[in-house]
Amino acid sequence: MAQKHLSSGDSINILPATNAGTTGTAGNIPAQALFKDAQLEVMRLYLPAAKHIAAHQVDGPITIFCIEGQVEIQTDHASKILHTGDLMYLAASASHALTAIDDSSLLVTIALQGSAHHANA
Amino acid sequence: MAQKHLSSGDSINILPATNAGTTGTAGNIPAQALFKDAQLEVMRLYLPAAKHIAAHQVDGPITIFCIEGQVEIQTDHASKILHTGDLMYLAASASHALTAIDDSSLLVTIALQGSAHHANA
Asked: What's the rounded Cα separation, in Å, for the pair A45 and A94?
């Protein structure tokens, strides 16, 4: 609740704290919600090496961008390692588990179901 | 049309071609659609220094991530410079123009209106 979320037109540097500037730096907080509106949610996750997140799924499509480190992503069909700079796309409801191989930071973008927000549409 | 779009579970390295590996590299193509589904669209833009994109708006909220370079973003209310590693959020229908200060690469993520895809919902 103490986190400041981005308003439209705001920006934040998402690079690792050791590389980024001293203002507006996300830092290595375990999970930081950057913003959430009716259609789009973006968060930054820091996973120390060996951290595992069990298989789960979300209603909307997502992207996972590896800011730093290496993370193994296990889907129903395959396992893939994301390295720094890699962007993965997962369709809505695609099950995925994560295991950090190194200390890693991820940018996770989720498209939310907008239908609940269509008043009388 | 010759571009291979990501399927669910696929990944691509979006770092600049000079930094990235030799496989799955986005490279400095002016505009590359990475994928598009009913709710989410992601593209990579390369803007050489001084390139200007006139003010425009999109129906859904977007994020602009500065992969490399410096880009000035002009909204109705303000002007802000994105540096490498900066992520900007723009609400749906927020007008924005772009001017590259240096040779720059951007990752643009757009949440699409899903309502047209709700069959009989």
From this structure: 19
Contact between chains at B80 and A9 (C-beta distance less than 8 A): yes
Check if the beta carbon of residue B78 is closer than 8 Å to that of residue B17. Answer: no
pLDDT, one tens digit per residue, over B6-58 is 999 999 999 986 544 333 344 567 888 999 999 999 999 999 999 999 999 99
Inter-chain residue contact A63 with B75, CB threshold 8 Å: no
Neighbours of A61 (CB within 10 A): 25
Question: Looking at beta carbons, which residues of chain A come within 8 Å of B61?
Answer: 8, 37, 39-40
Residues of A within 8 A of B113 (CB-CB) are 39, 114
Q: Contact at 8 Å (CB) between A31 and A38?
A: no
> In this complex, do B34 and A111 lie within 8 Å of one another by their Cβ atoms?
no
Does B15 contact A84 at a Cβ distance shorter than 8 Å? yes
pTM above 0.90, yes or no: no
Cα R_g (chain B), whole angstroms: 15
Answer yes or no: are the C-beta atoms of B112 and B41 closer than 8 Å.
Answer: yes
Distance from CA of B55 to the nearest CA of A (A): 14
Phi and psi at A116, nearest 5°, equal -70, -15
The span from the CA of B121 to the CA of B102, in Å, is 47
Over residues B78-107, the pLDDT tens digits come to 999 999 999 999 999 999 999 999 999 999
